Amino acid sequence: MTPTLRDRRWTVHRHIPVPPDVVWQLLTDLTAWPRWGPTVSAATFDDDAALTAGTRGAVKTLFGVSLPFVITDFVPGRRWAWTVAGIPATVHEVEPAEDGCRASMSAPLWAPAYVPVLEIALARIDRMARHRHQASRLREPPDE
Prior knowledge:
By secondary structure, this protein is an alpha+beta fold. It has a single domain (4-137), classed as START domain (Alpha-D-Glucose-1,6-Bisphosphate, Chain A, domain 4, 2-Layer Sandwich), CATH 3.30.530.20. Helices cover 26% and strands 41% of the residues. It has an 8-stranded antiparallel sheet. It is globular and about 45 Å long. Pfam families: Polyketide_cyc2.
């Protein structure tokens, strides 16, 4: 994955051979964040809210520091972005593509050192999405 500059952000993309909704579920499931996010050990919402624009919560880093977050941009099934501790952070996107989807993550222009973290996250999401998709296909009844 080669990072590109898009909208003044460092962006990495990855083709994942599963339907976009499988990746979207991983991107929006707080319990999955620590499994794919290398810098996240836990995340919670302030209320029993769902991930949407304006949702507030806290993300706990690997160093044990809990930081407040706010979802600043949300397009269902496509994109969400957030601020962490009041600072613009990552954008997470998924879009349909031939034979699956294209997942993207981006970091602010001032944070190029975070690009390898995004690459690791996308690789983990790829692995998790393939596993989840394969498991769901095994549970489907055979065609008659």
